[in-house]
């Protein structure tokens, strides 16, 4: 990239000479980290085409989590033995048929749900559809609208609008912080992201859920960016419906199936808009008339994606003996430390944090907005901010870029170390420091 001059790259080894203070601090924090050994449960080898041969600092687990060690062997066994040799018998003998609810019960403790409240399958988008239409069908007769988080990840908005058209309701986008003031007795439900994918802001799940309930509306939460990163407390906060993906902080793999949570007391009233045969009370009766299965099974649709489901099940073993509360403690310490290092290494005015400094409102990522000059549209496409991320990746620090100016760094406490955080901030400082002077418009 032409705008970023060549400067010596960091080696990735801890260099105590130049940036002694932060590097020493990182080493101390890693030595005291009770989750440090959990990192060994993940494959963090260098990519085969990596020039230096060093492993990357991987800060993109909020998009695609890292491969947990046990998954490859488990999937090889599923393919060679369960599918290759047992074939059709595996639906019963290998537990394929019951995998969606069995794996749902394994995710449940991580999101504060009791058994029988979570079912795994389909994509997040499809589960949003089930939850929104299922929620509207349970809402009061006079309801005329659905509220949608105005800052939502786009798929939620697209699906909510389509679901609203199908049910004759209107959609009203509302900032999460305004939902308590905007909800009315005409609101069927609100669909809200627990953590904002762009800024990393944590929304007030208990407070918003309470406010919705006081107005008689249901609370539907998208947990994609919180599940596996922080405690959610679905049962404790009486959330009605929730969905989430499993390929981010749950490390289930690319395209891993999503999940649907239905509050226990609502399950018998839940009418799926996708009542496939797997959600029937007696699927193998092949009855032409539909009768929903009892409980969470009615959230199923068709034949589950067994290879992906069982990869996810193996991936969840990385959580053995790990409490979500200790993950949260480490996540906040990592993001605090990264922000400290950014302040120490990055020249003033080049980036500002979009992620709240207050722990109460912070998820498990840090989003840095680049100065307007770096974010400005340039002829031929990507803003310079996008090229900054490309350069970071080239130097072995993997985050991602979101238009127009956001550098995102996701922190997955199961495998991210404090040394990773220090190295990422140091390389960011080198890349941004090598740019020609820009006006200081972004500091703050
Ligand atoms: C908040 C949120 N919801 C939904 C999705 C994606 O949905 P799907 O799993 O259907 O691709 C994402 C990310 O891809 C997301 O960040
Ligand atoms: N789901 C993804 C995919 O299939 C390909 C690339 C990225 C994704 C993502 O998860 C994007 C992500 N939800 C985000 O927060 O931007």
UniProtKB/TrEMBL annotation:
It catalyses: L-kynurenine + H2O = anthranilate + L-alanine + H(+); 3-hydroxy-L-kynurenine + H2O = 3-hydroxyanthranilate + L-alanine + H(+). Pfam families: KYNU_C. Pathway: Amino-acid degradation; L-kynurenine degradation; L-alanine and anthranilate from L-kynurenine: step 1/1; Cofactor biosynthesis; NAD(+) biosynthesis; quinolinate from L-kynurenine: step 2/3. Coiled coil: none annotated. One of its GO terms (molecular function) is kynureninase activity. Pyridoxal 5'-phosphate binds at residues 124-125, 153-156, 222, 225, 247, 277, 303. Residues 1-22 are annotated as: Disordered. The keyword Hydrolase applies. Its EC number is 3.7.1.3. Keywords: Hydrolase, Pyridine nucleotide biosynthesis, Pyridoxal phosphate. GO terms for biological process: anthranilate metabolic process; L-kynurenine catabolic process; L-tryptophan catabolic process to kynurenine; NAD+ biosynthetic process; quinolinate biosynthetic process. Its cofactor is pyridoxal 5'-phosphate. The modification N6-(pyridoxal phosphate)lysine is found at residue 248. GO terms for cellular component: cytoplasm. Gene3D superfamilies: Aspartate Aminotransferase, domain 1, Type I PLP-dependent aspartate aminotransferase-like (Major domain). Homodimer. Belongs to the kynureninase family. Catalyzes the cleavage of L-kynurenine (L-Kyn) and L-3-hydroxykynurenine (L-3OHKyn) into anthranilic acid (AA) and 3-hydroxyanthranilic acid (3-OHAA), respectively. This is Kynureninase. It comes from Streptomyces glebosus.
């Amino acid at each position: 990239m032409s705008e970023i001059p060549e400067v010596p790259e960091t080696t990735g080894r801890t260099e105590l000479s130049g940036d002694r203070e932060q590097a020493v601090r990182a080493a101390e924090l890693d030595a005291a980290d009770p989750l440090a050994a959990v990192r060994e449960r993940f494959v963090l080898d260098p990519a085969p085409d990596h020039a230096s041969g060093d492993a990357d600092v991987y800060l993109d687990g909020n998009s695609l989590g890292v491969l947990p060690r046990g998954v490859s062997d488990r999937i090889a066994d599923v393919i060679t033995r369960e599918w290759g040799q047992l074939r059709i018998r595996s639906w019963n003998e290998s537990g394929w048929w019951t995998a969606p609810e069995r794996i749902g019960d394994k995710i449940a403790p991580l999101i504060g749900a009791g058994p029988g409240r979570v079912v795994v399958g389909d994509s997040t988008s499809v589960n949003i559809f089930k939850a929104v239409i299922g929620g509207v069908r349970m809402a009061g007769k006079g309801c005329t609208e659905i509220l949608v988080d105005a800052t939502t990840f786009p798929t939620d908005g697209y699906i909510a609008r389509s679901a609203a058209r199908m049910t004759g309701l209107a959609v009203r986008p509302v900032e999460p912080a305004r939902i308590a003031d905007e909800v009315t007795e005409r609101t069927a439900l609100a669909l809200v992201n627990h953590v904002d994918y762009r800024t990393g802001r944590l929304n007030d799940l208990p407070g918003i859920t309470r406010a919705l309930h006081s107005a008689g509306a249901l609370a539907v939460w998208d947990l994609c960016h919180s599940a596996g990163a922080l405690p959610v407390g679905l049962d404790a906060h009486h959330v009605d419906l929730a969905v989430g993906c499993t390929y981010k902080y749950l490390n289930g793999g690319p395209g891993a199936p999503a999940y649907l949570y239905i509050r226990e007391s609502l399950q018998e009233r839940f009418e799926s808009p996708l009542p496939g045969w797997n959600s029937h009370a007696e699927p193998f009766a092949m009855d032409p008339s539909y009768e929903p299965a009892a409980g969470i099974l009615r959230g199923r649709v068709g034949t589950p994606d067994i290879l992906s489901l069982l990869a996810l099940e193996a991936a969840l073993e990385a959580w053995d003996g790990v409490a979500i509360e200790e993950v949260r403690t480490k996540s906040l310490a990592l993001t605090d430390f990264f922000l400290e290092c950014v302040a120490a290494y990055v020249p003033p005015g080049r980036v500002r944090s979009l992620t709240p400094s207050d722990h109460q409102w912070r998820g498990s990522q840090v989003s840095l907005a680049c100065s307007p000059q770096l974010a400005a549209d340039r002829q031929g496409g990507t803003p310079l901010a996008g090229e900054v991320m490309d350069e970071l990746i080239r130097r072995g620090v993997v985050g991602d870029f979101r238009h127009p100016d956001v550098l995102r760094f996701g922190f997955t406490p199961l495998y991210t170390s404090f040394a990773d955080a220090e190295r990422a901030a140091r390389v960011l400082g080198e890349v941004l420091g090598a740019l020609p002077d820009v006006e200081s418009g972004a500091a703050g």
